[in-house]
Amino acid sequence: MAVVGSRSRRTEMNWGTICCSAISCLQLYWTRLVIRKWFNVSSFDSDYSADTDDDRPSLSPSQDFEAGVTKDDDDTDDCPKLRRRNSETFRAQYIETQAVRICAGTWNVGGRVPPADLDIDGWLDTLEPADIYVLGLQEIVPLNAGNIFGIEDDQPASVWENIIRDAFNRVRPRKGKILSHSDPPSPSMFRPYKEVSHDMFLETRHVGCDAFSSGERPILSEEDSITDIEALDFTNDNASPSTPDRNSDSQREERFGYNERVGLSWPEPPLKLLNQYVLERRGAFKSLNLSIMNLRKPAYVRIVSKQMVGVFLTVWVRRSLRKHISNLSVSTVGVGIMGYIGNKGSVSVSMSIYQTPFCFLCTHLSSGEKDTDHQKRNDDVIEIQRRTLFHPHSSDASVLPRSIRDHERVIWLGDLNYRINLSYEKTHELIASKEWQLLLENDQLSIEMRKGNVLEGWSEGALCFPPTYKYEINSDNYIGDDPESGKRKPAWCDRVIWKGKGVKLLSYRRNEIKLSDHRPVTATFLAEVEVLSPWKLQRALAITYAEIQSQ
């Protein structure tokens, strides 16, 4: 009995030791996480998230990025990633200039979790799809003590990313024109060719029909879109009542008649066979339609998402553009409590688009309506510019941009919190009369930029819309008299500014989504990027070689 009792006590002691050790490790781990968060200490490896090559979200972007340079198995662009050199004359021999459309959106969501069916198409301006979307959210979580000092809550960010992804999946592709340059063999047998629309060309594709008849899955390229799938004439329960019936035989035969203009010959029109199959097994074909829609690769991919307490920045690009994004790095700067906590601050992303370095910043600056509060915001901006650092551990840091000013194109967005230096009554009077210019003359950010106190040399579009703050929730009314908060003067808190040559502002507007006490703001740009031309480079090298040989 004594032996059994001794063994039992030893077992209890072992379990007690294990439990104590586990608790100590958890306490140490928890303390380490909290301290790193409080003082905004970055880990050695980037801890942002991005879509993987198979479009599944990943929490370990190091699988896709290493040493600040993207890796893509399908990347056929073997050209070196170059930065601007001193010799502009030599660069002109092998560099071409292209333009990319960039949509930058900012929104303070006030810690509110959005419904799954929230419509943000207007904010993203999906009627005119951009090549790159830079979206910044502030107060993505409520700024309470638990979120500020505790472990980061990334659940709301996932909800927002799903809403953004759904919006991009609804984007219709740009429809170009396709011109047939092949001469018909015999003018007497074929009608003269003419310019035809992209939609008509897609209607004649029969790869999907052949695949279904053979029992194989149709193969869709990464650039295939909803238009490609509609070319298979699937039924669509969500079609608008005003949309013409695409399944009528007469319209289908008219579209199919295009084969005569390009010299195609069909033993039997496959679209008629498809129509017969649809009539026989309509229900089964609907489910097949949904399956094919799911097989289509998304038009946009998420290359980076990063959250710091309530500040959240996510960047999405067209799938075809992803392989031309390189040198990606993320930097976070907290300027909140004690000057370091992340309840206020910035999340910044550095990347090269082709051969041009870009920087995107999402910030949430200090709030307050006192006369001297604008100086705190100025200090926040200066501190963010000073402490933002990219590629801290890269061996190529000498040639990669390290700070904000090292980039050739910079877009800064967020809740900058600058107010209007007017009384509550005068501000509302000018808003009612739409005197935007008089309001702008008293806008703190505009005043500070004109004086050169902050953001000197930066640009902003004309503010031709009402102030975006502060609204009653789900209302068009500004906050008025409130026993707790008092009078809140409306202000243009939500801004998008930029710096750098080769950036043209196309539009600057706000959207009327009433989820929070702020209105979202969108700025659309056309930005020049430098693209390495292998053909020009080869020609320049050939000329140089010939000059050397002649000597």
Automatic annotation (TrEMBL):
InterPro entries: Endo/exonu/phosph_ase_sf (IPR036691), IP5P_plant (IPR045849), IPPc (IPR000300). Gene3D superfamilies: Endonuclease/exonuclease/phosphatase. Pfam families: Exo_endo_phos2. GO terms for molecular function: inositol-polyphosphate 5-phosphatase activity; phosphatidylinositol-3,4,5-trisphosphate 5-phosphatase activity; phosphatidylinositol-4,5-bisphosphate 5-phosphatase activity. The keyword Hydrolase applies. One of its GO terms (biological process) is phosphatidylinositol dephosphorylation. This is Type I inositol polyphosphate 5-phosphatase 1 isoform X1.
